[in-house]
Amino acid sequence: MRVYISLLFAASLFCLNAAPSVAQTFSPPPLLFTGMDGILISDGGMEIPVWGYGLTANGYITVPGPLLEYETGDDVNLSFVNNSPESHTIHLHGLDVDQANDGVPTTSFIVIQDDVGSYEFTASEPGTFFYHCHVTTTLHLTMGMYGMILVRHPGGILFEGGPAYYSDAPLLFSDLEIATNLDPVQSFPFHDIRPDYFMVNGRSGSQLETGSSGTPGEPGTILSCPNGESLALRLGSMAYTLTKLIIPAELGAMCYMSDGRPVPTPFGVEELDIYPGERFTVLISPDAEYDGTIEVQSWDMVNREYVHSNFVRIRDAALNVGDTQIQNPLSLSISPNPSRDFISVNSSDGRDLADWTIYNTSGKMIAKGYSNAPSMRIDISLFASGSYILESINGDFKSRARFVR
Amino acid sequence: MKIYNMNNFTRWGLFILGVNLSLNVCAQDTLWINTGDWYQSQDTMSVLRFNETAVFDTSNVALITPADASLFLTVINTDTEPHDFGVDGLWSLGLDILPNDTTTFEIPPMDMGTYRYFSSDQRGVYLGLSGVLKVGLNMPHQFHWNLADCMPERMDSVFSGGELLDEAPYVPRYFSINSYTHPHTASDANGYVALALGDTCTISIVNSGMMDHVLHFHGFHVEYLSTTIQTSRIGWSKDTVPLLQGEGMTLLLIANQEGIYPVHNHNLIAVTNSGFYPGGMLTHINITP
Cβ B259–A138 below 8 Å, yes or no? Predict the structure, then answer.
C-alpha cells in the first residue's frame, strides 16, 4: 500500500509557520519508522515516489522527515522501526556521536526489515543538525530519507551568551532527480545524478506561497515575525546542489552559527552559500510592514551553473490578516490581475482610496499617490515583472491587496 | 624571484618534515614531472604527477616548507609538453619549463598555511599536476588530502593532444583523495587519519579538482586554521567543510573520542567509483585508546 503524504500535515509538522512554537521536548523521543512507499505531490501535481521517515503515531512518511526537537543537555534515545524491505539506518549528522551510534553500516549497525534500531546520544550543543539514512547514501538521500534536528538552548537564546530571538523557522533545502525517484532500481550509475526538482521543507514553487491546497494566503506558509523581534532561520542543505540564498537587506540578516557552533564573529549576510550537509543559523529582523521574499537558488555543483529558484515569503506579522494593527480593514479589489499595463483599484464600501502606496516584495516603495475617489486606474506598464502590494490608507481605514504584473 | 636553468639535475635533498626552522633558512626540494598510468575500476588513465624521483608515483608529493623562508625548487620536466608552475593565488613562475628541461627557482616566503602548487596549463590541469604545499606547519601529527575529480574521456583527449570539447558536459566519474579512491584510501598513510586518543593533528587540504567539494566529518568538528579563499571562516568550528576549486586549507582535529569515523564528500555523487557506491572521496579517522 502506498502512503500518500499530506503536505498540509507535513507543513504543520515542519513548522513552516513561524508563530511561537509550542515546546516539544520528546523524552523519550518519538519512535520513527521508515517507509519506501511514499508519494510526494510536486508543484504541478506530479506524483513522485519517495522513501522517508515518519512518526509511528501518524503512520505516514514525509519528505523531509519529522522535525526532531531537543533541548541542550537532553539525553536522547531515538529509535525507529524499519517497515520497508530494504535496510536503513539513522546517521546523526553533526552531533558528533560515538561510533556505535553513528549510523554507518560498516562501522555501526544496520537495521533490517521489521527490526528496530535505537541510537543514544546527548544533545550537548545547541544548533541545527540532520538525521539521515547512511545506507547506499547517494540513492537513499535523493529518495528522501532525511530530516532536521533542532537543539534549542533554554531561555530563548541561541546559545550561552548568544542573542535572544522570537521563534525558530527551520528551512531544509533539498532536491531530487525525478527519473531516479521514478525508477530507483534502474538509477545506476550514481555519479551522474543531476537533480531537477528543488524543495524547501519538501515544497516547491507555488506550494511555498499557497500551500498544498492551492488556497492563496493559506496560513502556515508564510514566515511572520513581529516588528522589533528576531526570527531564527535554521538553514540546512540535504541537496545535491549548491544552495545560494539571496536575503533582502531590509531583513537585517545576521549569521550567528554554523554546523551547531557559534561563529567567532557574527556577520551580516545578504548572500549565503550553503553546501550539501552544511547548516547556518541566521537571525532576521524584518522592517515594519516588510513583506518580501528570500530567494533560494540552486546551482549545479559540477558545472556551477544556476538551475532553479524557489522563494520563501517573509512578512511583518502586522501585515497578517486579522492583525490588530490593521485598523478597520476595508476590501480592495484589483483587476485585471495579473496585468501588464493598467490595474483598476476599487474599494468595496465606497470610501475614497485616499493615500495609496505600492510596494514590491522586498518592501521597497515603487509608487505612491492620493485619490479622492473610491476607484482609480494606475499605469503599471513600466513596473518590473513580479508581485506587488498596494496599500490604501484613509484615516483609520487601512487595507492592502496584492497584484501581479 | 631567481631562476636557474640546469641541464644536469642536482638534488639537494633537504626535505623538511615537521621541523621548525628559523627565519632566513631556505628550504630546497626537487620535483619531477612524470607521466604514468592510473588504474581505477575498469579505466586506465594516462596522468601527470609531481613526484620526488624519476619513478612515477600515482600521488603528487606534498611539499613542506617553513614559514617566512624562501623555497628553492628544482623542477625536472620529463613530459613531452612544456608546463608552467605556480602557487594558486599567490605566486607564478611566469615561464614554461620545457620538455626534458630542468628549472630551479625561488618562491618567496609564504604565511603559515596550506596552498595548492600546480601547473595551470591545460595538460597540467586535466592530467593532475597539482599538489599540497604545507607552510610552517610543525605539529607532530600531520595529514594531507589532495582532492580531485576526473572524467577519463577528457583526460584521454587531452593526453593524446586532441581537441578538448569544453562545451560537452563535464561528468566526472572518479573522485579521489591523494589519487586514492575508497576503499583504497585506507592504504594511504598520508590521508587515513590514524591517531591515539588525545592526539591533535593538522589536515592540509587542497582542491585540485574542476569543481567545488564539501567534506563531512563524522564524530568530530574541526577548526579552520588557514584557508586561501574563505578567509572569513578562519577560527570556525565545523563538521561540514566546503573547499572551493583551487582552495588550500588547514584544519585542526582533536582526537577526543575513540572509534572509526568516515570523512566523505557530502556531494554524494562523489562517493562513487564510476557510478558504484561506495567509493570515491571517502576516507576514515581511526582513533585508538
Answer: no
Per-domain residue ranges of chain B? 3-138, 174-288
Judge whether residue A27 has pLDDT over 70. no
Residue A102 with chain B: CB contacts under 8 Å:
218-219, 259, 261
- Give this prediction's pTM: 0.82
- List phi, psi (to 5°) of A297: -90, 145
- How confident is the model at residue B60, as a pLDDT? 98
Strand order in the sheet with A68-71: A68-71, A146-152, A127-132, A91-93
For B274, the grid coordinates are: 564510476
Domain that holds residue A305: 1-321
Q: Say if CB A151 and CB A72 are below 8 A apart.
A: yes
Interface test mutation site (partner B, options A131, A134, A275, A303, max chain B beta carbons within 10 A): A275
The answer to whether the Cβ–Cβ distance between A107 and B260 falls below 8 Å is: yes
Coil, strand or helix at A82 = strand
Per CATH, domain B3-138 is 2.60.40.420: yes
Question: What total of structural domains would you count in chain A?
Answer: 2
User: What is the Cα–Cα distance from B189 to B192, expressed in whole angstroms?
Assistant: 6
Chain B closest-CA separation from residue A1 CA (Å): 29
Q: How far is CA A24 from CA A162, A189, A241, A400, B127, in A?
A: 22, 41, 32, 36, 54
Where does the pLDDT of residue A268 fall: very low under 50, low under 70, confident under 90, or very high at 90 and above?
very high
**B229-233 contact pairs (CB < 8 A, 24+):** B229/B89, B232/A267
Q: Do β-strands B130-135 and B113-118 pair in parallel, antiparallel, or remain unpaired?
A: antiparallel
Contact B238 A261 (CB under 8 A): yes
Give the pLDDT confidence score for residue A221 in this predicted structure: 60
Task: Write the pLDDT tens digit of every residue in B98-141.
Answer: 999 999 999 999 999 999 999 999 999 999 999 999 999 999 99
